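Researcher: I'm preparing a figure for a lab meeting and need a structural model of a single chain. I don't have an experimental structure, so a prediction will have to do for now. The sequence is pasted below. Please return the structure as C-alpha cells so I can convert it later.
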Amino acid sequence: EVQLVESGGGLVQPGGPLRLSCATSGFAFRISDMTWVRQAPGKGLEWVSSITSGGTSTTYADSVKGRFTISRDNVKNTLYLQMESLKPEDTAVYYCAKGSRDGWRRVGSWGQGTQVTVSS
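Model: Understood. Here is the structure written out cell by cell.
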C-alpha cells in the first residue's frame, strides 16, 4: 500500500522559512519521480515542484521559483520542500504526490497534507 505522510507545516511569519517532509512507504521511492502540490483555501490543487527519481532534475512553479527547494533522500525514502521568504499567498495545504510534474494527477497517490499558514 502506497503511503505518503507529510509533516513540518505550521504558522510562520511572512519572510520566514519552513521545511516540509514527506515520509513514504509501500513503493519503490528511489525510482519514482515525486512532486509537491498545494491547495489554497477555496482553490484547486496547484502544482508546486517536481524532482526526478535520482534527484538530478528539479522544476518549480514560477510563483515559488527562487524561494523553494525540493530535494529527496533515497535512503530514507523521504521527500523534502525547503521554503524560504514565505508570503501570505503561500498559505495552503501542501501535499506530496507520487509521480512527475505531468503524471502525478494520473497516478493519484498523495498524502493527507500539512497545513502551512503564512501570517503576521
